Amino acid sequence: MTIMTAESTADQPEGVLLDEPTTADLRAKVTEAWREFAGALAALLPTLSEGAYVDITLDPTASGTGTAVYSVSMRVVADGVIEALAVGNASLPEGFRMNRASVADLVALGWSPPGVLPDSGDSFGLRSSAAQAKQLAAIVSRTLRDVYGAPHPAFLVYLVHDDSDEPIATAPIGTARHEPSIDEELSLDDLAEDGVLSEALANAADEVIPLEERVRTVVATMSKTTIDQLQVDTDGDVGIRAGSAMVFVRVRDNPPLVDVFSPILTEVEPTEQLYVKLSELTNRMPIGRLYCAQDTVWASIPVFGRNFQATHLMLAVQVMTGLADELDDRLHGEFGGKRFFGEGDKPAPKKDDKDGDDHRTGMYL
């Protein structure tokens, strides 16, 4: 077994110790992912013909928003005009409706209140054009992130279709996921049944192929996509959204190692109690480790790059997603902070200063 355990990493000579994943700031990584999402959307919109739609939704199966569906829909009409609709409170269940501050944020971004734009119904409306695709993409991105609370574009699902709901093939919109894959989960058994696992193993086992390419072959296979469609950030990390977890995969050349890591908890205050807890949990983990750097708790599982085994990387990714789902709630309850996306971190929970309570606007907005 070539997965490095918590004990084995401690026994390695100094030259092979891993740098912390936190050398790349998490906030910068997330910001860059949103920038790439907005750029991809801006590039897509001018290429669409009249009658095309782009529907983008915060995945409720990952965000824990249940029956609340936060979405933005864009439609290309005549003469390059693009009309956009953003969900309003009339379409949201009680407990998930936006408060006055969030509604004000939507209006400040340029959205008209429900009913103002013709045929907008209960949704906020916006009228733009293909020539202003960059500005429209920025507004949509900020709406999804800042108002609806999407923590990362990988938590979005999208569908591009025509008037008859026939899908339109397009390039990926950043790390957002194409809607048909919303229910797909990472599973070694499923991949084996599909016959793609053996092919990925064969490709990844070829020592002539660079380690980075072998790793991306495995990740693409698990994500049921292609290597070209993987989203790689400026640090060279491949991001994977699995359930409520964000997992990053980084390839290192010297020594050849693959680091699978995930931000478990952010904006947490480092204390002696926290360090003791992380040490105890690490000692009980069969592989990997937990640690705190700055204000973020990370989980990390290194995999050896020499004699690289695809199954070991797949196992590391699956273990990491399980750890993230299990530990973020436990640590959040004990030490506070913010989960990457959890039940206590739902969109737009702002309180209105005027009322002093969690008053939310009525059904009109």
In N-to-C order, the SSE pattern is HHEHEEHEHEEHHHEEEHEEHE
- Based on helices, strands and strand pairing, what is the structural class? alpha+beta
The CA-CA distance between the termini, in Å, is 57 Å
Tally of structural domains: 2
Q: What is the number of strand segments? A: 12
| Percent helix | 25-40%
Question: How many strands, what sense, and barrel or not for the largest sheet?
Answer: 6 strands, mixed
Oligomer: single chain
% residues in beta strands? 15-25%
Calculate Rg over CA atoms.
22 Å
What is the overall pLDDT average? 78
Region (Disordered): 338-365
Organism: Actinoplanes friuliensis DSM 7358
Protein name: YbjN domain-containing protein
InterPro entries: TY-Chap_M, TY-Chap_N
Structural account:
With 365 residues, the chain is of the alpha+beta class. The protein has two domains: 28-178, no CATH class; 211-335, Yope Regulator, Chain: A. It is 33% helix and 19% strand. It is built from ten helices and twelve strands. The strands form two sheets. A six-stranded mixed beta sheet has the order 4-3-2-1-5-6. Strands 7, 8, 9, 10, 11 and 12 form a six-stranded antiparallel beta sheet that branches. β7 and β8 (245-252) form a beta hairpin. α7 (196-204) runs antiparallel to α8. Residues 1-18, 181-186 and 343-365 have low confidence and may be disordered.
